[in-house]
Design a protein that fits this description.
Blueprint lengths: L15 E5 L11 H19 L3 E8 L4 H10 L3 H13 L1 H4 L6 E4 L3 H10 L1
Parallel strand pairs: 1-2, 2-3
Helix pairs in contact: 2-3
């Protein structure tokens, strides 16, 4: 089997590699502590790409919980409008931090809700 050479001079492994971060609650703006986690995950994802692996890097937001509901109420907004605004702030990290994630998942996405209902 003839494998390509990666940028690191090794044979490309061409193995699937999946990485995800924790899904932060959207009850506040992104902060430096969370940025550290996603930058570290991004570095690992990029390393595996250099090895020639087929990388899938997942990132997103958890949009359920009492604190989120309370913050939405404090802001005088419906919960979905509130989480839409904050999820956008987290997704903006891709550009601000030059991240390479493939997928931005939100726990209010219809396919996520359906999957959670089937599992639970």
């Amino acid at each position: 089997m003839d494998k390509k050479k990666s940028l690191l001079g090794r044979s490309s492994r061409n193995e699937p590699f999946y990485i995800t971060t924790t899904l932060p609650y959207v009850n506040a703006k992104p902060h430096i502590g969370f940025a550290l986690e996603i930058v570290q995950a991004d570095a690992i994802a990029r390393y595996h790409k250099l090895l020639g692996d087929e990388v899938f890097f997942n990132f997103g937001t958890d949009e359920h919980g009492l604190k989120i509901y309370q913050k939405a109420q404090e802001a005088g907004k419906e919960s979905q409008i509130y989480v839409d605004e904050y999820a956008a702030k987290f997704d903006e990290l891709k550009k601000a931090l030059n991240l390479s994630y493939n997928n931005f998942i939100r726990t209010t996405d219809p396919h996520h809700i359906k999957a959670a209902q089937e599992i639970w």
